[in-house]
Amino acid sequence: MTPAVRRDHTHFVDPNGLLWVVHAKRRLLFATSVSDTLRAFLLPYAEHYRQRGWRVDAAAAGVSECEVCADAFDAVHDLPWTRRPSERANFFEAPRALRALVRREAYDLVHAHDPIAGFVTRFALRRARARGEVKVIVTAHGFHFFAGNSLHRNVVFGTLEWLASRWLDAQVVINREDEAAVHRWRFPGRARTLYMPGIGVDTSFYDPARVSSDEVAGVRQELGLAPGQALLLIVGELNPGKRHRDAVAALAASGRPQLVLACAGVGPLAAEIEEQARTLGVGERVRLLGFRRDVPALLRASIGLVLPSEREGLPRCIMEASCLERPVIATRIRGVTELVTPATGILTEVGDVDALAAAMARLVDHPQEAAALGRAGPAAMRPFDLNHVLALHDELYDRVLGDADLSATSSIE
Question: Across 24-163, where does the E strand assignment appear?
Answer without folding.
Answer: 27-34, 55-61, 75-78, 109-113, 135-140
